[in-house]
Amino acid sequence: MRGSDAALGAAGFAVFVLLGEAVPRLGLVDEDHFPPAGRIAGALGRELSDTAFWSALGDTLTGWALGLAIAVSAGVVAGVVISVVPWLREVTASTIEFLRPIPSVALIPLAVLLYGTELRSVLLLVVYASFWQVLIQVLYGVRDVDPVAEETARSYGLGAWARVRHVLWPSALPYVMTGVRLAAAVALILAVTAELVIGAPGLGARIAVAQTSQAVPEMYALIVVTGVLGLLINVGARAVERRALAWHQSVRGEVAV
Amino acid sequence: MLDVHGLGKVYEGSGRRTEAVRDLTFSVAAGELVCLVGPSGCGKTTLLKCVGGLLAPTAGEVRLAGRTVDGPPPGMAFVFQEYGRSLLPWMRVGQNVELPLKQKRLSRERRRALVADALESVGLADAAGAYPWQLSGGMQQRVAIARALAYEPEVLLMDEPFAAVDAQTRAELEDLVRRLWRERGITILFVTHDIDEAVYLGERVLVLSASPTVVQQQLKVDLPVERDQLHTRVDPRFAELRTRVYEQVQAAKLGR
């Protein structure tokens, strides 16, 4: 079953690539704006042998990874503290609901004002966008702690820190993992957006340069690269999730008892 | 050993005032096995949580070995009805049993020995490496009991621990509790809604009234110390005792 699913997926992708080759060649779309798949592949090959491409990729990944790391740490710490301190939740709820929906891209002018085209501009946007993903999930996760598990821990004299470590954190972990996976995807989107719009060095800036210099196949090749990155990030995040949550119902599946 | 005096618990919230426990007074001697029965919803769990220091009573007090209980005391272990939720699914059986011991500042060897001994006692010596969810319900409750044993409590509180397992497993677990009680001389306070179970297990049965709860009656169970599922349950004295407890519980339901 899995094999045939994979075969179908591969066949679908092959048809997609073939269409990408055939449609511009048949003159159905303007070849200058929609180059055939073959030419995009050629451009991709040239990009891969260019050191400037690799340093752009490195810049994008640096912004992504740093931003994600900051957002995840801040989100987890803030989420746990807000949940553990009784009145903090009520105090912060309305502010969170107000700040969360602000699109990160609306902060681009602010980022430019503060940091110009530095990495810090990218970080500001990445962190802002992915922080909320993590925070919200942590808040939900902490709420999901089983009262029986919590009472068990209390009855055995586990202190506040031991309860956070052994009960609260593992209970919240499935949610945290979901938050990290969402944040990882959002962080990539924002990293590329920031480079594209602000011109901070990275794949986004390289896409903008390709566009202004009419290097259309290169532009598509770089877009393909960002797509592959997104795919890898998602696959990686899911693998981490499965490892960390091997005990969880969603991962362990049915157990014969 | 355990003295409950004038215990009352009133829940107040969202404009509603619920008096769960009114005025409970009883005591449990060291090494005694006492069963509490009562109609469902009579505040048995509330009572046990107050005794265990998990809930603060609104009146009266609980004293363990002369000291007032104002939080979970070190000499007390709790076995919950919901074993599946009380065991931590991210820890293996051995780790679950060991976790409370880490708070007791025991040496590693001592902890290991206690865990091995406790698992051995409940017949799960080779399950230490399994996850709780890989075990059957009865085995999971055995793990929870082993965790309580390893903690070396003076008093063991059990809140309807066998309400969620099948009849045969339940009989086995009842015998396990009797055996552990005799071997280890722990004081046990066992809450149940099952009259037969209360009479079979207890040295004394306290019948609670409907909520707001008071002690309706106390009954000494004068069955032999040596009990088994086959003979004890057909003993005429057993039938007599269960009838008396049954009558009391019925009376409690009707509020007489």
From TrEMBL, chain A:
Q: Where are the transmembrane segments?
A: 64-86, 98-116, 122-142, 172-199, 219-240
Instruction: State the superkingdom.
Output: Bacteria
The record's comment on protein family reads: Belongs to the binding-protein-dependent transport system permease family.
Q: Name one GO cellular component term.
A: plasma membrane
Q: Is Transcription regulation there in the keyword field? A: no
- GO biological process entries: cellular response to sulfur starvation; transmembrane transport
Q: What is its main location?
A: membrane
Give the matching Gene3D superfamilies: MetI-like (1.10.3720.10)
Q: Where in the cell is it found?
A: Cell membrane
Species of origin reads Streptomyces paradoxus
Q: Which parts of the sequence belong to the ABC transmembrane type-1 domain? A: 57-241
* Topology of the protein relative to the lipid bilayer: Multi-pass membrane protein
Q: Which UniProt keywords apply?
A: Cell membrane, Membrane, Transmembrane, Transmembrane helix, Transport
In Swiss-Prot or TrEMBL terms, this protein is called ABC-type nitrate/sulfonate/bicarbonate transport system permease component
- Which PANTHER family does the entry link to? ALKANE SULFONATE ABC TRANSPORTER-RELATED, MEMBRANE SUBUNIT, TAURINE TRANSPORT SYSTEM PERMEASE PROTEIN TAUC
TrEMBL record, chain B:
* UniProt keywords, alphabetically: ATP-binding, Nucleotide-binding, Transport
GO molecular function terms attached to this record: ATP binding; ATP hydrolysis activity
Q: Report which superkingdom the organism of origin falls in.
A: Bacteria
- Ranges for the ABC transporter domain? 2-235
Kindly give the InterPro entries that the UniProt entry links to this protein.
AAA+_ATPase (IPR003593), ABC_transporter-like_ATP-bd (IPR003439), ABC_transporter-like_CS (IPR017871), ABC_transporter_ATP-bind (IPR050166), P-loop_NTPase (IPR027417)
Transmembrane regions listed in the UniProt entry:
none
CDD domains per the UniProt record, alphabetical: ABC_NrtD_SsuB_transporters
UniProt-recorded name of the protein? NitT/TauT family transport system ATP-binding protein
